[in-house]
Amino acid sequence: MHDFRLLTPGPTKLPEQSRLALARQVIHHRSEEFRQLLAEVLEGLKYVFQTRNDVLLLASSGTGAMEAAVVNLVPPGRKAIVLESGKFSERWRKIAEAFGIEVVKYEVPWGEPFEPAEVARLVEKHSDAVALYTTLQETSTGVAHDIEGIARAIAGSNTLLVVDGISGVGAVECRTDAWGIDVLVAGAQKGLMGPPGLAFLSVSPRAWRQVESFSRPAFYFDLLAYRRGLAGPDTPFTPATPLVVALCESLRALRSVPMEEHWARCRALGAAARAGLQTVGMKPVARRPADGMTAAYLPAGVDGKAFVARLYSRFGVRVSGVKDSLRARLFGLPILGR
Amino acid sequence: MHDFRLLTPGPTKLPEQSRLALARQVIHHRSEEFRQLLAEVLEGLKYVFQTRNDVLLLASSGTGAMEAAVVNLVPPGRKAIVLESGKFSERWRKIAEAFGIEVVKYEVPWGEPFEPAEVARLVEKHSDAVALYTTLQETSTGVAHDIEGIARAIAGSNTLLVVDGISGVGAVECRTDAWGIDVLVAGAQKGLMGPPGLAFLSVSPRAWRQVESFSRPAFYFDLLAYRRGLAGPDTPFTPATPLVVALCESLRALRSVPMEEHWARCRALGAAARAGLQTVGMKPVARRPADGMTAAYLPAGVDGKAFVARLYSRFGVRVSGVKDSLRARLFGLPILGR
Questions:
Q1: Average pLDDT of span B189-193
Q2: Alpha carbons B314 and A53: distance in angstroms, whole number
Q3: A47-51, A128-132, A190-194, B201-205, range with the lowest pLDDT
Q4: What three-state secondary structure class fits A115?
Q5: How far, in Å, CA of A248 to CA of A56, rounded?
Q6: What is the pLDDT of residue A307?
Q7: N or C: which end of chain B has fewer CB within 10 A?
Q8: What is the pLDDT of residues A28-53, one digit of tens each?
């Protein structure tokens, strides 16, 4: 008798109007109708990203946009710095290694944030690193990394700043232009309240100059092909049209309040979630906790797998459970309108 | 007052039940509910592909699966044969070149089919070619290539046969196992009557042996990651869940009649479309015409762009118009249930 509540760190529940949009008949992607829709979506993404940089839309999961942010910036054999503190920041390294990039790794224990001063020393030491890859909100631990601080600490360098914002953009403060993020990656199905299957990245002018400077091992993720499409706007390959139509509705909902007000609301919800979990004996994993999602250890003696299963069967609440090295966790992404 | 009729060679209109499925609340992809759904979809795809080989599902457009079929089979510096006769078969070459693969090109004029005997000679001459890339239905010309004949002609060789079936699979006869296709690529939004944003490929045991034999420049399209997921079944990255839910309904509709009966119906519709076009002075482009779609030249003096626009504004019929080197074209994909 309980309503289904999807409280995983993504995908999130879709707003009613986005679901109804999904049910509309498919439109052709080479049509004026779709071009207008895509233009509105790209404009909405720029607003959410707080940027005037180009924003590109890919038909893939967030990982596809992460791959695009690696192969288009760092040629094989060149150097990249990766900040690691969990399963998703590890992914940056794995992608870079798959394409023969030399990786310099700065690792902190899971649950800990990166120290901007340490990052600055690393960038100074490896001044030949083309790009530095980091994470806004580490989904596997619920840590909020200090992207503003990291950006300020490396501002004078030639190293491009690339941020995986997949699990946070839309829900938590992230100012692409004001902070100086060269490439910000996001996915539709988390803070943007859209359906899974779409990913985005913003590209700064100096990042574009790097993209233009070499031939990349890429075709589906060749960002120059996506940039050529921006004039239409159009996409180089068939887009996931129904998902774009639905995302358009989700972005309208997001834009119905000022971004600052929305971030403040998510901050309050995040704080409430952590306080609530602590009163029932659960301990947040992160030392610098994120507001877009929460990860917590269960009390000793509680079986994580059974707990997650019962939360669903008894209360209709779907959370993500045990993963990798952490004992047990609870996730919740507080989002607009519920 | 006219009903909207989407008659492009993809995307096609979605069956009612698939649209309603899209509107359901998003489910979590790491759940038993999704695993059951994915298992049914993969089983349905095997049936449509007429194969017992593994079939993998990607969150991307068809081009993403084409890229996967290139980077996972042919190491950079090694040789591939590409059969070219239009915009989409050209794409095989462009992908291979982007990844530093040596391409041997066999080209026939647009509108012409490949000669199996010529293909056999080419494969014999280039016995060091790892794979041969060809196309079931060339969307830019409406040619049906003789995949059965090509497969028979090169059957004794070590060269893997890879077929882009994106615009035909589901609508026209294509027997993966009986003909001996090592890798068949398809997209959801054409003959399968699903929404755009999903792509698939089947992989034969000898193609898997080639995949396992080298380290590929791939992460999002690394097929070994997708194969590891088959045990769940699961996907290595967040799938486009709503699209999978909708495709499941489309596949149920497709499977409601035997495959042979469905192919026969599409053959009849294709023949009817060509006959109808000829009575109003349009000439099919293809010498060996496909049944899953039709491309035709407009009569002299008719402005292609204006014709396509008027067909939509006056009759609600959406077709694809002029492209690349051909003067003007009409497309129509006859599909189940309309």
A1: 92
A2: 40
A3: A190-194
A4: coil
A5: 15
A6: 84
A7: N
A8: 888 899 999 999 999 999 999 999 99
DSSP secondary-structure letter at B30? Answer: S
Q: Which domains does chain B have, with CATH numbers?
A: 5-11+258-318 (3.90.1150.10), 16-254 (3.40.640.10)
Q: What is the pTM of this model?
A: 0.94
pLDDT band at B222 (very low <50, low <70, confident <90, very high): very high
- Chain A and chain B share a number of CB contacts under 8 A equal to 180
Inter-CA distances, B61 with A212, B111, B162, Å: 25, 25, 17
Residues of A in contact with B243 (CB under 8 A): 197, 240, 242-243
Beta pairing partners, B143: B138, B289
> Rounded to an integer, what distance in angstroms lies between the CA atom of residue A232 and that of residue A36?
9
Q: How far apart are CA A119 and CA A125, in angstroms?
A: 10
A286–chain B nearest CA distance, Å: 23
- Is the sign of the CA dihedral A320, A321, A324, A328 positive or negative? positive
CA separation (Å) from B15 to B1, B19, B217? 21, 7, 38
The SS3 call for residue A216 is: coil
Contact A28 B320 (CB under 8 A): yes
Q: In whole angstroms, give the CA distance from residue B34 to residue B240.
A: 11
H helix runs in B128-171, sequence order: 147-153
B58: pLDDT strictly greater than 50: yes
CB contact under 8 A, A64 and B62: no
